[in-house]
Automatic annotation (TrEMBL):
Feature: compositional bias, Acidic residues: 258-272
Protein name (database record): Putative rab3 gtpase-activating protein non-catalytic subunit
Domain of life: Eukaryota
Domain spans labelled Rab3GAP regulatory subunit C-terminal: 165-259, 301-772
Region Disordered, residue ranges: 250-296
Length: 795
């Protein structure tokens, strides 16, 4: 009875409500399950014309055509990422216990003002799988419209909030292939969405002057956060016109003269003599493109044929649609592969929300990572950024070139050449840092960095690269070499430097190249202005977040200017280390070649001040450690030349000689001494022509001639005393002082023992030309020439 019902305690009432909620959900599960098995629908045709789409979606044909054009252009790039998860027949994606487990059933809150016939509210758990739930509830409804009436009736009686149902619907739409494989589902989605929104009642309606509707804003948030960009783009286009149905316009003010002339009859009482029942509120009139609010002119009169007013809420939808169109073009490019090289890019999920969260530099980072996936070179990027969009090819299917041009038209500021180059350099280093055995990434990064045209940007990025990727490892390597006096072995190298010993040379070379780039950038044009970083239109209206990551370009431009003296000393140290590693030198302690003041400046930030110069000029009376290193290094460089070097090898060798001369100048050592030593090493190896080229730069010709005279004597020693063809005649031809001098020479450092006799003749003639006639060795050189010319040809 009613009295017994009222006397029920709280627990009994709570149990009663729990059972009712269970009953509501069981009925919903049964209804959805029934629609899965009963043949109450006709399969939807996948073919639908653009005109039919425009008519059913209440969308302008031009808008439909634009959406179809963009979707069809990029759909092949997304086809492999979709999986249709529709189940039919007896296959049920969620059994009843699992379905009930998605909801908060035992809610202790009891509202007293609800009708007994109204369904109790049911809340979906926060950790519920909305994707699976949406698939169960709406997969059939998106395949056929035949089940819509029964489904909507069951959903209405389930007690689930309309906002939660809409959320489930969008999870199904955005996680499956409905949007891209079946255009008929566009209409079904729009119809189903409109029906669900109508269940929400007042909260879904908005006016033209409303800044933002919370109901529709939540839907925009879901669409902006989806990585299924084609579905989000199509869904936004559909929802933007569904939302127009919920635009409320105010009723025009009544005419006072009409109100006075025509009086409304008094309300009649009902049969029981009471007041008539209050009529239910009328549903707000649906509005299409012309359901506008009333416009009042300056005279306070209604303008019946006024211009269409701006509806702020609809503007939000148009803005979102435009931004998702931009993201669709960008995200599709990131999926494009290189057919020529058979290279596929990594899968990168992109959504509008993720772009906003990761800052304005993310577009450049994503495109740069894609370019690195396809192994593009700086020349490839230079070519792409110079391309222009050809006329009359708007509908043409995109290749990489045309697609890149489309993206660059939308993100011109993010895809400037220098921005792409520095981000590609950074991307290559990030990949090397993940797998340091991929040492070729360093050479690629160096190529991108050297191609940057802006000196300011190159300097800033070089500083970031040095501090982020190189400084600690370079310090560890130098300290090991200082301790051991040689290149460390693999085990120690991997432990301290985190690099294999076979990769030390390219690592140190890259360190040198980065420091060289910083120095070269500092010598750039003084009139260069700081690059401007304007905002991309995509970020217009985006929420401002100071914690958003800064772009690499902005970070580089904000770097403190380096102390060039400190950079220079690091550059010299890197050169020393590179020589030791490349040429296998031993007993070299790199830090010991610098003064204590300079050693303190090493491994600090490059902008740290340097209090004193590196070193003064070396004493001419003693051989300094720097001079000893330079001469040993020059010997190692020249001895690395093969017998028949090509142009590339020669270029590398002379490049190293110039670096050693640069070291000598920085240390205050005699550069002429290094040149003379290089000339002697070349003659010793039989590279007479190369030696003659280098000797042109030697200033002290007489001292060089004295050194070369020894080499000529060594050659004659081998020719006369160790060659069987000349042995019978040697004693008769040689004057005693010549014979004694030749026999005293040590041949251990002569690398080419038996060059052609003509080369030795030319060498002696060069020596005679360099020595003054009054020089003590001039007569000796003439005597050697006479002896060599008088020798008979060996039989």
């Amino acid at each position: 009875s009613q009295d017994e019902e009222v006397s029920c305690d709280f627990d009994a009432e709570l149990l009663h409500r729990t059972c009712r909620r269970l009953q509501q959900l069981c009925h919903l599960h049964k209804a959805v399950d029934k629609s899965q098995v009963d043949d109450i629908y006709e399969p939807a045709s996948e073919e639908i014309s653009p005109e039919e789409l425009a008519d059913e979606l209440a969308m302008p044909p031009k808008k439909v055509s634009r959406v179809l054009t963009h979707v069809s252009r990029y759909l092949p790039l997304w086809a492999s990422g979709f999986s249709k998860r529709v189940t039919f027949g007896d296959e049920n994606p969620i059994v009843l216990p699992a379905f009930l487990g998605c909801f908060e059933i035992g809610n202790c809150h009891m509202a007293r003002d609800r009708s007994d016939d109204a369904p109790l509210p049911v809340t979906i758990k926060a950790d519920a799988d909305f994707r699976q739930l949406g698939n169960f509830l709406f997969s059939r409804a998106l395949a056929s419209g035949g089940c819509h009436p029964l489904l909507l009736e069951a959903l209405k009686k389930s007690g689930i909030a309309p906002s939660s149902l809409v959320q489930c619907l969008f999870h199904e739409w955005l996680s499956s292939s409905w949007a891209t494989t079946n255009r008929r589902s566009w209409c079904l989605f729009g119809s189903l969405l409109k029906s669900l929104v109508e269940l929400a009642g007042e909260e879904a309606y908005f006016t033209a002057s409303l800044t933002m509707s919370p109901w529709w804003r939540s839907i925009r948030t879901v669409l902006a956060g989806s990585a299924n960009v084609p579905a989000a783009y199509i869904g936004t286009a559909i929802v933007s016109y569904v939302a127009r149905s919920f635009l409320r316009r105010p009723s025009p003010p009544k005419d006072s003269t009409t109100d006075e002339a025509v009086e409304s009859p008094p309300p009649a009482e009902d049969e029981e003599g009471g007041k008539p029942p209050t009529p239910p509120p009328q549903a707000p009139p649906s509005g299409g493109d012309h359901d506008d609010p009333v416009i009042i002119n300056d005279d306070g009169e209604i303008e019946e044929e006024s211009w269409e007013p701006v509806v702020i809420e609809l503007d939000h939808w148009e803005a979102l649609l435009g931004k998702l169109e931009d993201v669709l073009v960008l995200a599709s490019l990131l999926r494009r592969r290189c057919e020529k090289r058979q290279l596929c890019p990594e899968s990168r999920e992109v959504s509008l929300s993720s772009l906003f969260a990761r800052g304005q530099g993310i577009i450049t980072e994503l495109v740069s990572a894609w370019a690195c996936d396809l192994e593009m070179t700086p020349e490839d990027l230079q070519r792409l950024t110079k391309l222009t969009f050809p006329n009359g090819l708007e509908a043409q299917e995109d290749g990489i070139d045309l697609h890149f041009v489309r993206v660059r038209r939308r993100f011109a500021r993010s895809l400037e050449l220098d921005s792409l180059l520095v981000n590609c350099a950074s991307e290559q280093l990030v990949r090397w840092d993940r797998d340091r055995d991929q040492i070729d990434q360093l050479a690629k990064a160096s190529a991108f960095l050297s191609a940057v045209s802006s000196s300011i940007l190159k300097n800033g990025v070089g500083l970031i690269i040095w501090k982020t990727f190189l400084q600690k490892r370079f310090e560890a390597l130098v300290l090991l070499m200082e301790k051991m006096g040689k290149t460390p072995k693999d085990r120690i190298c991997r432990r301290d430097v985190e690099i294999s010993d076979i990769h030390l040379e390219p690592f140190v070379r890259f360190c040198t190249e980065v420091l060289d780039a910083i120095v070269d950038a500092s010598l750039g044009p003084e009139a260069e202005t700081l690059p401007v970083l304007p905002q991309e239109p995509l970020w217009d209206g985006a929420p401002q977040d100071p914690s958003r990551p800064q772009s690499l370009v902005a970070h580089a431009l904000g770097q403190r200017p380096p102390n060039m003296a400190s950079v220079r000393h690091h550059q010299l140290l890197a050169t020393v280390v590179q020589v030791v590693v490349l040429f296998g030198m031993r007993s070299v302690r790199p830090l010991s070649l610098f003064t204590p003041t300079v050693r303190k400046a090493f491994f600090q930030d490059l902008h740290s001040p340097l209090l004193a110069p590196s070193a003064g000029p070396a004493s001419s009376l003693t051989s300094s450690p720097q001079q000893s290193f330079l001469l040993r290094a020059a010997s190692a460089v020249m001895q690395s030349l093969p017998d028949n070097p090509d142009a590339s090898v020669l270029g590398t060798t002379f490049g190293w000689m110039n670096r050693l001369l640069d070291l000598a100048c920085s240390w205050g050592e005699d550069r002429d001494l290094v040149r003379r030593h290089c000339v002697c090493e070349l003659y010793s190896a039989g590279h007479d022509i190369l030696a003659q080229e280098v000797s042109l730069a030697v200033k002290d010709k007489a001292l060089l001639a004295s050194c070369l005279l020894v080499i000529a004597g060594q050659r004659m020693h081998h020719l006369l005393f160790m060659n069987d063809g000349h042995r019978p005649n040697q004693m008769a031809l040689l004057p005693p002082h010549i014979s004694t001098w030749l026999l005293s020479l040590d041949l251990s450092n002569l690398r080419c023992l038996n060059p052609p006799t003509l080369q030795t003749l030319n060498l002696l003639q060069i020596i005679i030309g360099m020595l003054p006639e009054d020089h003590s060795e001039h007569r000796l050189a003439l005597s050697l020439l006479d002896v060599l010319e008088s020798l008979p040809e060996p039989s």
